[in-house]
Design goal:
InterPro entries: RNase_H2_suC. The protein contains 3 helices and 8 strands, in the order E-H-E-H-E-E-E-E-E-E-H. The protein is of the alpha/beta class and 137 residues long.
């Protein structure tokens, strides 16, 4: 099975960025939703780094995460779900982003969260695969 990413020229050239919220929940559904109409949370600033909000009565603690330097984030949508597991999949770009808000229930996002660890791998991979010679002091 292969996954084909189709990035539209308009997505690459667009100055407008998507507003993303990474929520600590799973929604069993794949329908479209008018998120900008129905999810406009009241977000209070705790300090420069951290934010608070609620979702369906649950307290959320969040912070903005920037996409690592040299990278661009893209959002994709799969118009046709595969019928079988071994079927090729096609995902189409719907927008791009350079930051997103990462939310946790009841705790402030920290370096110990899985997302932070995953983003750290970008720096680790670059260091491992770098062809630069280490500098001597």
């Amino acid at each position: 099975m292969a996954i084909h990413l189709h990035i539209k020229k308009e997505t690459l050239e667009s100055e407008k960025e998507s507003v993303l919220h990474l929520m600590p929940c799973k929604i069993d559904g794949d329908e479209t939703a008018k998120v900008s109409k129905y999810f406009t949370p009241y977000i209070s600033e705790v300090n420069d780094d951290y934010k608070q909000a609620t979702f369906r009565g649950y307290p959320l603690q969040g912070r903005k995460i920037k996409v690592p330097k040299g990278y661009t984030g893209y959002t994709f949508y799969e118009y046709e779900k595969p019928v079988a597991n071994n079927t090729d999949r096609n995902l189409y770009s719907t927008g791009k982003f350079s930051e997103f808000t990462y939310w946790n229930y009841d705790k402030i996002p920290s370096r110990n969260d899985a997302l932070s660890g995953a983003l750290d791998w970008i720096d680790i991979a670059e260091a491992l695969h770098s062809t630069d010679e280490p500098t001597k002091s």
